[in-house]
Amino acid sequence: CGNVEELTVHLLVYYYYSWRIWSDIVNWWGILWVSPGSIQELLVWWFGQKRQNLGRVIWEALPLAILWTIWIARNDKVFNSKEPNWVDLVETIKIKVAFRVKQSFSLPEFSIHDFLFCLHGIKGYRARISYWCPVFCFILFFVSFLVECSLAFFGLCLHMIEFFNRCQHSWDVF
């Protein structure tokens, strides 16, 4: 935002648009919340919420999807001067989670639309979900996150090479 030092907690939690994303997702679940003091407190609170069945899987997949989306939006803004549409990001997060959960657990009876607009009807669904299913979803998101970060890093490297080439060219002129 340029108003304060860019600390991780500010970027991922306190920054107005980040806070709105977290709040919109929490409100989607019908929960009122108070912004936590740190990312660790946020995750402790998040994973301390008692959910069961498919609702637990969806709930536990959300934090990484939110953090990942905020980080990618930040990088697009900083490195590509692309202003993110923060309202669309909330829908993007919901769709990513819905797609990953639906794909991971082979849930043909539910559409992405069901995940987005009928959450209360599906979060009590008793799919064959083991203790490891949320871990599997987390791993899927983490791998996707690493791939996107690698692509962002690769893009940054290309920008740096281009910058150094321009610098080299300007030195050659003298």
Describe the structure.
This protein has eight helices and no strands. The chain has 174 residues and is mostly helical. The relative contact order is 0.11.
Summarize the entry for a quick read.
The chain is mainly α and 174 residues long. The protein has helices at residues 8-14, 16-28, 39-48, 53-80, 86-105, 112-117, 119-122, 133-173.
Topology diagram in text:
Layout: H1 8-14, H2 16-28, H3 39-48, H4 53-80, H5 86-105, H6 112-117, H7 119-122, H8 133-173
Helix pairs in contact: 1-2, 2-5, 4-5, 4-8, 5-8
Helix content: over 70%
Rg from alpha-carbon coordinates: 19 Å
Approximate shape: globular
Described by strand count, sense and barrel closure, the largest sheet is: none
State the separation between the terminal residues, measured CA to CA.
38 Å
- Report strand %: under 5%
Number of discrete helical segments: 8
Kindly state the mean pLDDT as a whole number? Answer: 76
For this entry, give a set of tags.
174 residues; mainly alpha; single chain
